[in-house]
Amino acid sequence: MSAESLERRTRNYLQSNVPQIQDHGGHFEIEDVDEEAGEITVAIGGACSGCGIAPMTMKAIRERLPDHVSDIETVNVRRTSGPRAAVMPDKTEEMEEMDEYTDYSPPF
C-alpha cells in the first residue's frame, strides 16, 4: 500500500461522504500519511475554523474513516486557525468531551 493510494482513498471518502465541509465554506487537507502505521492526519479549516459543530465533524471523521478506508488504523483530525476562527482552539478538546457531542451522529 502506498501513501499516495491511502491519501487518494481518504480524499475520495471525505469528498463523497462529508460534503458539508466544502458546502459550508470549509476545506480539508491531508497533512500526513504514514502507510506503515496506518495513520493519517487531516486538517479542516476555512469556515470550519469557527464552526460550532466542527468538533462533531472531527469526531465523525476520526470514527468513520477507518471503517470505510482499508489500511487506516488511526485518524488524527485538527482544526486550523484562520481569520474565521471564532471558537478558541483551546476549547475544542473540551467541546469534544461534552455530553451533547457523545451521542450525536452527524447526517453524513
UniProtKB/TrEMBL annotation:
Which Pfam families is this protein grouped with?
A: NifU
Sequence segments annotated as region (Disordered) = 83-108
Acidic residues bias: start-end ranges: 93-102
> What InterPro entries does its record include?
FSCA_dom_sf, NIF_FeS_clus_asmbl_NifU_C
| Domain NIF system FeS cluster assembly NifU C-terminal residue range list | 18-75
Gene Ontology MF, one: iron ion binding
Superkingdom field = Archaea
What Gene Ontology terms for biological process does this UniProt record contain? iron-sulfur cluster assembly
The identity of this protein, by name, is NIF system FeS cluster assembly NifU C-terminal domain-containing protein
Species of origin reads Halosegnis rubeus
